[in-house]
Design a protein that fits this description.
3-stranded parallel β-sheet, about 160 residues
């Protein structure tokens, strides 16, 4: 789904972040269909004690809902996905991994195009400088969601 360059940038940023911030846990929950960084991954996994990769096929990681994880997190760094919307809706600071992607639809959220963006985000979140991120969440949610009943909205859109 993502280019080799994107994947390499993600792994590099993760590895540098885990090394730079040894007291912070980095929890990775791969999508159950893609299962990147798990049994399907053919590369070298980052080996840091503060990186936790949840194998989707392991029963211990199957049951918890994403919201259950979010309640324990300080911030979310993710590929562009609905995880970003869910985290924003739970008022968590979010950083979208951009690298070589065009992510206009995720504006005004913070976008990581390099390791410095990751480091800034992690520093901000750990030092409770999150007001701008939460304000961006509010704007993003307004752009991403349509008020009202989803079925009625879809029918009205199709029939109008």
């Amino acid at each position: 789904r993502y280019s080799a360059e994107y994947q390499a940038n993600f792994l590099n940023a993760l590895t540098i972040s885990a090394t730079t911030f040894p007291n912070i846990k980095f929890f990775i929950k791969p999508h159950p269909a893609g299962m990147w960084l798990t049994s399907r991954f053919k590369g070298t996994l980052p080996e840091h004690s503060n990186i936790i990769i949840a194998e989707p096929t392991d029963p211990k990681w199957e049951r918890p809902l994403l919201a259950d994880y979010f309640r324990k997190l300080t911030g979310v760094i993710s590929t562009p996905s609905t995880v970003i919307l869910d985290a924003a809706r739970m008022n968590l600071p979010v950083l979208v991994c951009g690298f070589d992607l065009e992510l206009n639809k995720f504006s005004p959220l913070a976008i990581a195009n390099n390791i410095d963006d990751w480091t800034t985000f992690i520093n901000d979140v750990t030092h409770k400088k999150t007001e701008a991120y939460v304000n961006n969440n509010i704007q993003f949610i307004k752009q991403a969601l349509i008020d009202g009943n989803a079925i009625e909205n879809a029918v009205n859109l199709i029939t109008s």
